[in-house]
Design brief:
The chain has 15 helices and 13 strands. The protein has a 6-stranded mixed beta sheet, sandwiched between helices. By secondary structure, the chain is of the alpha/beta class. The radius of gyration is 23 Å and the shape is globular. The chain has 2 domains: 239 residues, 3-Layer(aba) Sandwich (Rossmann fold); 117 residues, no CATH class. InterPro entries: AAA+_ATPase, ABC_transporter-like_ATP-bd, ABC_transporter-like_CS, P-loop_NTPase. It holds the Pfam family ABC_tran. Keywords: ATP-binding, Nucleotide-binding, Transport.
């Protein structure tokens, strides 16, 4: 059964009075419970696209549907109360406590004090900041990472169907950024919120996104597909250039060890090295093989859920698993969209060629 569409952009365009086109005929759908990561170079319209969804920016043309309703016909204030919004610098009210910040939208909606306090406590537990310790603190008493987590809690206060996140982890150091990404992934898995995440970081997009939408300058959609499909089969030179080097290493972090990647367990040298689990990321498997002593003959045991040995894995097995993942990505539903993007780009190039009349 196909997932329900929560957000749909239909030929959305944003042009300004000076003739600048920020977004050009953008169409894509966001499925229920998924994280769609919008990536692309600076000036490609990522943030503009996000802000059109909650009408902080008004589209010039096209339709944006939220659960089937055209947002351009909705009251913008009421619309924004239904959509969570998290930005890079959080935007907490500096003279209000953590509890008061998280309570902002519930208060506007008329929630009573008991219900609001229960929700604040629940959300603070969800983001790992217990209410007993943090509810009465002020933003200046928090670290950057703590403020970011409070921003997520505030955005989730009324359990919105959609969460918009604009470079939410960009203001923290790389080490803690990875930690926040992991925490956010756990929160999203628990809440099931539908998320559009804007980021300039392809690694963050691949780590957090169920699908990635790659935009190029002028707000043109180059490809929308799973992270593996984007990395293994870029739809255009623009996508390939944005991804840059290192696609194989990124794919190691996305693909998993499967039974058909393994060889017989009876070839494992005893005493057996530390095992990896069936379903582990190929990154973990690669590190395990790389750490083997010479006596292990380049082979690690792979165990199932029960802990019993399922088979053995070698460097060749990891390479085969990587190829398998790339082949599987080629069958991704986004591949058709990617092909459309290539054909559109080719058609545009022909039409723009000097001396040619446009096709009619």
């Amino acid at each position: 059964m196909a997932a329900r569409t929560v957000i749909e952009l239909d030929s959305v365009r944003k042009a300004y009075g000076d003739g600048t086109v920020a977004v050009e005929e953008l169409s894509f759908a966001v499925r229920e419970h998924e994280v769609l990561a919008l990536v692309g170079p600076s000036g490609c319209g990522k943030s503009t696209t996000l802000r059109m969804v909650n009408r902080l920016v008004e589209p010039t043309s096209g339709r944006i549907l939220l659960n089937g309703e055209d947002v351009t016909t909705a009251d913008p204030v009421a619309l924004r109360r239904r959509i969570g919004y998290v930005i890079q610098n959080v935007g907490l009210f500096p003279h209000r406590t953590v509890e008061a910040n998280i309570s902002t939208v519930p208060a506007l909606l008329g929630w009573d004090r008991k219900r609001t306090r229960a929700r604040v406590s629940e959300l603070l537990d969800l983001v790992g900041l217990p209410a007993a310790t943090y509810a009465k603190r002020y933003p200046h008493e928090l670290s950057g990472g703590e403020r970011q987590r409070i921003g997520v809690a505030r955005a989730l206060a009324t359990d919105p169907p959609v969460l918009l996140m604009d470079e939410p982890f960009g203001a923290v150091d790389p080490e803690f950024r990875r930690h926040l990404q992991t925490e956010f992934a756990q929160i999203q898995a628990e809440t099931g919120t539908t998320v559009i995440l804007v980021t300039h970081d392809i690694d963050e997009a691949a780590r957090l996104g169920d699908r990635i939408a790659v935009l190029s300058r002028g707000g043109r959609l180059e490809q929308v597909a799973s992270p593996l499909a984007v990395l293994a089969h870029p739809a255009s030179d623009r996508v390939r250039d944005f991804i840059g080097d290192g696609s194989a290493s990124r794919m190691l972090a996305l693909a998993q060890v499967q039974a058909n990647d393994l060889e017989s367990a009876d070839r494992i040298v005893q005493p057996a090295p530390a095992p990896v689990r069936l379903g582990a990321r190929l990154t973990d498997a690669f590190e395990a093989v790389a750490a083997l002593p010479g006596s292990a003959m380049g082979r690690v045991p792979v165990v199932g859920e029960s802990g019993s040995i399922f088979g053995s894995l070698t460097a060749d097995g990891i390479l085969g698993a990587l190829r398998r993942a790339a082949d599987a990505a080629a069958a991704d539903p986004g591949a058709a969209i990617a092909q459309d993007a290539r054909e559109d780009a080719t058609e545009d190039a022909v039409q723009d060629e000097p001396g040619r009349e446009p096709a009619v």
